[in-house]
Amino acid sequence: MRNAKMSDLTGKILVRIVVAEDKSNIVFSTVDGPRYKMYHQQDCCEDVSIEDIVGELDDLIGLPILEARESTNEGDTGGGTFTWTFYVLRTNRGSVTIRWYGESNGYYSEDVTLLEI
């Protein structure tokens, strides 16, 4: 396993996408073998999960990923912090935005990790 960047998915052809029922992770399987797991390692005093998926995940299957990017927005809740992280994946068929939301007491990370497994 190694840490990956969202841009590592550019040019890959996905054959399967599995979203965990509890929205704690999503796994992308590629035609050439590698799988990529997007998740957050939960710790005390924080909660990070997939808030929403806009678009059809099936639009990403079977075609090269033309764009794979990440953007974030962070802020203060008054008693802690929050982070919105947006992941956009696009093929010729369509695009999908995966929106993660995390909040904590301000001491813990709300980052999302992408691993090549």
Question: Which secondary structure elements does this structure contain, and how are they paired or packed?
Answer:
Blueprint lengths: L1 E2 L10 E6 L5 E6 L4 E5 L6 E9 L12 E10 L4 E10 L4 E10 L8 E4 L1
Antiparallel strand pairs: 1-9, 2-3, 3-4, 4-9, 5-8, 6-7, 7-8
Task: Give a quick precis of the structure.
By secondary structure, the protein is mostly beta strands. It has strands at residues 2-3, 14-19, 25-30, 35-39, 46-54, 67-76, 81-90, 95-104, 113-116. It has a five-stranded antiparallel β-sheet, with no helix packed on it. It has a four-stranded antiparallel β-sheet with strand order 5-8-7-6, with no helix packed on it.
Write up this protein.
The protein is mainly β. It is 0% helix and 53% strand. The protein has strands at 2-3, 14-19, 25-30, 35-39, 46-54, 67-76, 81-90, 95-104, 113-116. The strands form two sheets. It has a five-stranded antiparallel β-sheet, with no helix packed on it. It is elongated. The model has no long low-confidence stretch (mean pLDDT 94).
